[in-house]
């Protein structure tokens, strides 16, 4: 893991950061190249050869929360008919039950940053697991809509916190050469959890499925006893001895952590001289670039229509002319997993920017094909091709979304904010995400009633705008430490603002 020493990361005064303001490809003297290479190898070799076993274990524990997130999101789709029949719920009552997860998640998003800064990353994960466990038990024991709704709200709050803290924790413990791939496991486990929930829901009843939702929550609580707290958070709150112990556990007992520890401590000490951040402070010139990137990426992610298309896949396939949407929906659930895994592999190879732009190009293609299918149906043209085109378009959409549009915004969100801003800024970004999720899922059926083809053409247009947004404003964070990313963003902000 390449580490540079910094004197003042916020102002970018360290000579070690000067290269961030220069072209990536430069012509240098051979002697300079050799000297630089030797210095890097000498100072960084120990970190690169260190053990990553604890990093992998910590990531595995954290993404138990992501799996719980997925099971919660995927719970309502396969259980709708059974819950309505068993508890005599009207469609309106079940719709309220389904929507409460996003309302709870919005509240979780609002409080997640402050909660995570106050009690630590592990503490926030414990709180979220507790809410999810209480929620699943309330659903399991439900005799009517009241306890069912309370349970759904509690699980929503839990996953609202999880959606913020898991990518933040992983980003803060991972070496920079592995950070992208490890952070992408968050999205991978969300997808797996959603798919598992859907598939199990076709085999077991809704109460048993609620009990199954307890498994990842309990696994998370147990696993948290065996992993360290985020070293950067420990440094931030002044617990230096615990900071060094946690960093050594993550990098290996025989690894020289002095360079990395000094870099983190220098950065944290610089941040401690800064005033306490409030919401409106995020829109100051030195922070607004990061806020625009984080919020913009989440708006792009949601405006492409993922939650509308995902929540109503079966209905979309039936509207396109299939006799049943079940087979297509199962294909949708299964295709997410390998393509999300592929995105995790590519994250630290191709870089964030190329991956998200290729992904947005794919979502444009998928939406455009599906829009063409509905246009042909509306015009009564080539009707035998309409179902095939619709299914093909939706599967292309979800496959390419899973590669980049799904995971990359979360990875970048965890990387771009300074640690003293991360709490309130992360809460804002996650709140925007859940608000966007609610808007898209709520308006999807209305848009489809207005124009099926127009709905997908609209999402295709948003995909094109995503490509332009990323090309213009989003920096490449691959291969940089979190401190180096801040220096890079600060230099760009001074130029733009």
TrEMBL record:
Annotated ranges, domain Major facilitator superfamily (MFS) profile: 58-478
InterPro entries to which the protein is assigned, alphabetical: MFS_dom, MFS_ERD6/Tret1-like, MFS_sugar_transport-like, MFS_trans_sf, MFS_Trehalose_Transporter, Sugar/inositol_transpt
A Pfam family that the UniProt record links to this protein: Sugar_tr
Transmembrane segments: 54-77, 89-111, 123-142, 154-174, 186-204, 210-227, 355-376, 388-412, 424-444, 456-474
GO molecular function terms noted in the UniProt entry: sugar transmembrane transporter activity
Family: Belongs to the major facilitator superfamily. Sugar transporter (TC 2.A.1.1) family.
Protein's name according to its UniProt entry: Major facilitator superfamily (MFS) profile domain-containing protein
Organism: Lupinus luteus
